[in-house]
């Protein structure tokens, strides 16, 4: 048995622990900081992710290494030696697992930004990555503790069928979520509308639900299986620009050529000056109806995003109304012409 409590061993233990702490602090505060300044000058973002993931964990690993060297330096009982080494190994595996999770999620984020930031930037991929790495780390820990993982894997395989049957709705949502993400038909940031009426921006797709934020600033939570089988309009595909239609009517006495010219001039001004308008788009009008009291037509403008259409319509109607007044173009009120017939009085 080790003589842990004599003066010599106590001083050796203190020296080793202090040495581990000092080296850990030097690595964290000096080496990693210097490397961080250097990586900021590089175009590759991966080195920043690796260094950020090592912060904190480096200090723990230095302590683990110093304790491991201390255990090997001192003469201790073999059983205690084996127990301490197992504990140190478990701590090391857990620390490496945490670093691996941080690095993996960081690289997933980099790839997501490269492909548009909407495919992998969902919590379902983050959670799956964490689950896989932690499972592998747990299996390594079990093997280190002398627990055979073969029976565990066999039990998981046999029990997997029963679990799958019991969790059918949950698994349906999980695989539906994966299908939605992989198909790229609905992405984070897209504005969608379901055939049942719900609409808003997609802010997350997790293992169970798709989260939509509506324009009134409320959250709509939709099970992935329901979304996968729903009729969905995606206003960001194949592109985010959308046509904006405004219905207008002028009186029958109007010069339609002049109306078209004036309306297009106003529409062009709106698209060039209002935020959200597509300045390069050439607006146009289409006459379509002889109504009861006006000739009606559609004005077609272009917005960059779905929500931009509201401010474009707002500004267009204001400017068009002002310009029509200047040009003496009449927007008629509803009119009904009533004919009365007088019958001669009976004598």
- Taking pLDDT < 50 over at least 5 consecutive residues as the criterion, the unreliable ranges are none
Residue share in β-strands: 5-15%
Q: Give the neighbour order of strands across the main sheet.
A: 4-3-2-1-5
- H/E element order: HHHHHHHEEEEHEEHEEH
Secondary structural class? alpha+beta
Shape: elongated
Our measurement of the CA-to-CA distance between the termini, rounded to an integer number of angstroms, reads 140 Å
In total, how many beta strands? 8
**What is the helix content?**
55-70%
Number of helices: 10
How many domain units?
3
The biggest beta sheet reads:
5 strands, antiparallel
Q: Please tell me how large the radius of gyration is.
A: 35 Å
Mean pLDDT: 80
Describe the 3D structure.
By secondary structure, the protein is an alpha+beta fold. The protein has 3 domains: 7-142; 173-234, SH3 type barrels (Roll); 242-326, Alpha-Beta Plaits (2-Layer Sandwich). The protein has helices spanning 7-39, 46-54, 57-73, 78-114, 123-144, 149-166, 168-183, 224-228, 256-273, 308-326, and strands at residues 191-194, 199-205, 209-213, 219-223, 232-234, 242-250, 284-290, 295-303. The chain has a 5-stranded antiparallel sheet with strand order 4-3-2-1-5. A 3-stranded antiparallel sheet has the order 6-8-7, with helices on one face. The longest helix is centred in the N-terminal third of the chain and has 37 residues, at 78-114. The chain is elongated, with a radius of gyration of 35 Å.
